[in-house]
Amino acid sequence: MASILQCMACARQYPIDVILYTCPHCGGLLDVQHDLDALRGGVDRALFDARLGTLDAPYSSGVWRYKELVGPDVDPALIVSRNEGNTNLYPAPRLAAWAGVTSLYLKHEGENPTGSFKDRGMTTGVTQARALGMSRVACASTGNTSASLAAYAALAGMEGVVFFENKQIALGKLAQAIAYGGTCVQISADFDRNLELVREISEKLGIYVLNSVNPFRLEGQKSIMFETIQQLGWRVPDWIVCPGGNLGNSSAFGKGLHELHALGLIDRLPRLAIVQAEGANPLYRAYRANFAEYEPVHAETIATAIKIGNPVNYPKAVRALRWTDGVVEQVTDQEIMDAKALIDAHGIGCEPASACSLAGARKLAAAGVIRPGETVVGILTGHILKDPDATIRYHSNTLDAIDAQHANALHQAEPSIEALTRILSPAPEPVEV
Fold this sequence. Notes:
37% helix, Rossmann fold, 433 residues
């Protein structure tokens, strides 16, 4: 039942125990392909339901619970895990009403160990690095990947190397990478150039690349779909809405859903909606042209996690959209930050890029793409504390070109009961949940 690497462009196949990120023949992106025929019949809902709540490794992980679909050939002794996954799926009726949809759930990947969905991909990526005998792993990062790579590399006893842009890096993410012991390098280049550099230096120095061009990363990230649908009692929602940056998540979602359907664990595919920031929207532009042309852009957005102008997983994201009859939308930084403020005020919280899911769902519902009565799952990709500066500046209304529509002002008071009474009276009406 050996898994293989297969080029999605020319279909050439390669063994998984070699270091490859793209096809040596045509340069196409690689998929990890498992033998679904061998799995069929032995993998069912009951298998995964029986593992829920177990304390036994590796199935206590919300990624490795689905080991047969993620890494069937992986030696459990090699697995590098922090019990990632197991994130909550929140029903959000008040946010659903604001977005104009009937039923909305928010899958909060910011509840992973380092605060983002990247942990799901890093457990599989670092495990593969260990299987290959690597001692160093590297990535270019807008922040979340660096934090996750540094943490999992440290757990595995490897050196983690991170290339950052030298501006607009959320300090919460940079602090994590440094604290976890990563070798952190700030470079005068944007993410796309840094990704080129990390691939070049890794080839020269024998370092394993763990950006999402690495197909083993996406194997872990597709477990977000497995877990979401399992949490819904194996009922398939009508829509999955997610932010789009380097497009690894949306690519992984398409692959995971395709595999669930092929194995008979779900009877239909949900539609996928990928939401990009207006200032970092190459996929949206290509979608509007029916994918007849694709051009990278110079990325600028407050949502730094998706500030990527030339996403490496573009072909896989297009495939995912075609598999799922999906759509692409764009939202402004104003729409992102207003949606984030509402998610935060709901008691859930997220980093700016995550709020693309809610802002995008609202636009799609207003346009009639998401129809009344349909169930929507929005993916929140990162924790609220990943970018506290953006949150504080929003609520103090000091963000450039953004008028905070849902600001929660910080009050100042003298140390007296009279001053506090002026602020706290009258009491607000209870909010119906």
